[in-house]
Amino acid sequence: MLEHVDPGKRLDQKGYDKAAPGLKERLGELQRRARDAGMPIIVIFEGWDTVGMSEIVNRFILPLDPRGFLVHPITAPSPEERARPFLWRFMVRIPARGRIAVFDRSWYFRSLARAVERKEEDARAVWREIADFEEMLSNDGYLIMKFFLHIGKKEHRKRLERYRGSDMDMCAISMAEVELFKKYDRMLPLIEEMLEATDREHAPWTIVEAEDQRFASVKVLASSVQMVERGLALREGRSQASMDGLARDDRQFSSLRAKADLAVSIPQEEYRARLEELQGRVAELQCALNRQKVPTVIVFEGWDAAGKGGAIQRLTAELNPRGYEVVPVGAPTEDERAHHYLWRFYRKLPPAGHMRIFDRSWYGRVLVERVEGLCPPAEWRRAYQEINSFERMLVEEGAVLVKVWMEIDRETQLRRFQERAADPRKQWKITEEDWRNREKWDLYERAVDEMLFRTSTAHAPWTIVESNDKYHSRVKTLETVVRAMETAGKGSK
Hints:
It is built from 20 helices and 10 strands. It has 493 residues and is of the alpha/beta class. The chain has 2 domains: 13-237, P-loop containing nucleotide triphosphate hydrolases (Rossmann fold, 3-Layer(aba) Sandwich), CATH 3.40.50.300; 259-492, P-loop containing nucleotide triphosphate hydrolases (Rossmann fold), CATH 3.40.50. The protein has a 5-stranded parallel beta sheet with strand order 2-3-1-4-5, with helices on both faces. It has a 5-stranded parallel beta sheet with strand order 7-8-6-9-10, with helices on both faces. The two termini are 42 Å apart. Residues 168-173 and 242-248 have low confidence and may be disordered.
């Protein structure tokens, strides 16, 4: 990709003065159009350490309204960031709709660091993960513009000599960057491979010949104008396509729930004994995985009144409260709706050694949002693959991931609804929305079957917990969690 690039292209001051003002004015206009259209934009600047990136970034942002963008300079991860999945620190920085995020280095710089610090195969796995990440954002309407600022080996050596012994901070160059990029011949094939692995139609690379800053700045501005114009045109087409994609889907999917024996139950005395044993074991495993820095993510989904709250109470009864958090998931806030739907869940992922228990989760995208018509069919249909990629990332980063579907029949749900409505101490548990959802049981059933079929994967399988009998339900849930944590603990030693 770089072999045919002439990094020494130049533009004199007269040419710059002729081209730059019009491009800057147009870019400012397009920022306002993107804001009004609600199109979020991610701009990525990568390149060699001595390329003068800060100056080029500065020339790019000067025409923009500063109220509409943020610049994120990416350096080595903090301890908090190291304790979470690789993409966490970047996902939490993506812009809201209508805003711009400018990354002065990005996930790519960190992936190259991985290639050098660890092994190249690890970096290749990260590049696949990055490509999925960018595709997910692009499908959600994000415009991704990626610039690699390229200089030749001779120029690179010359600039290193110029900076040697000077104040690196004054030159906007960190020692980490110098150490990473100073071996030009070592880094060039890695950069080539990275660019080729992540150059996709939805997020293409623009190679910027950057030995002359005037030429580089004009190319960045011109390319940005072209890409934002195209992004806005595609957005209009995508909006129409979403409106047209409302056809009814009557496909049937093999039901994982069909194998559940809802008549299964256990006696109260056995329940008490097993519960005490399992709660003690979960507490032991919490401490063990904390020492081993293994994060745990537990997802509870199920029918209304299936007993998720009770199961979570029994799961957490003996846990150290400093090491876990229960995340109740309801309707997204205005700020959450302004981001990709997975954004709010990334923000709640546990650091290494900690546990997060999700009382409902990202599966709302393909359940309530699907059934209630809160997102277009095109969006919830692509969410299956996005969720699978997200969960694969969690597991590959070393997390324990447990997914529990709590299954009850319609008659049991009705009985529990009526009991809640009749008991003043439990009336807070039943709402008009619960009754409305019950009327759509068949629609939810179809959505649940497709969800389980499409997202029960080898790396993140679903466990169906028969929950007509609460004693059995709680014991099986705890057994499932214990089994997963024990397996992870053995693998971490």
